[in-house]
Amino acid sequence: MDALPEIQTREWRGWTLHECATLPSTNDYARQLVPWNAIRAKIQTSGRGRHGRVWKSGLGGLWVSIVLPLDPPEQSWTAFPLVAGLAIVSILRRLGLREARLRWPNDVLIGPRKICGILMERFANDRMVVGLGLNITNDPPAEDPALAAIATSLAKELSSPPREHEIFEELLISLRALHGRVAEEGFASLVEEINHHWGGAREVEIYLPQEVICGRFLGVDSRGDLQMETEGRTLSFSAPHVSFMREILT
Q: Which CATH number is 202-247 given?
């Protein structure tokens, strides 16, 4: 039987923070936690993204899972990965990274290269786990050469990147504030701000279970659904029905 990790716990600004050296998956650990808890590991050995895709999680990145209440329960929380993405983009832009942008439904990029992925899961009816992986001083291509053209890190974009714990704490402050806005005003109150951070409309392909559709990505609606213009029509697609979206470089 695998030994349990040594977890250090502390209270910080209304959060209970758990930190350790190594975990298979912070999201899997977080399923046992209650709202306003967060877990951070220096290394994930089995990190994952949407649809079970592998997420490289070596030393030097920010690998965290944050537990938030689904409160009020009548509010729609399905688009919260976009809210978490907005928090990250805002932090990166404050660091001077003006090319930081969102990619629907759960990525943050610097220009064409991915720097952060977000995975929201519900393990109970009253809470959600928001898992987030941000490349800081880790080097994804060193772990997988196939990532060289599609991934980046803060160390590659900044001469003096911040430490993991600094971004972790700033993220927690931002997510608490944004969670409050969604709870009080709904996701629609953030749509205009989120749609400001896509880097403009662009040609994309979306992969559905039975077909691939090409069109022009326009942004998201009040539910967080993708809005695409194709053949003179505007179509909507929700994230659970789209396995992958690819931007077509022109």
A: 2.30.30.100
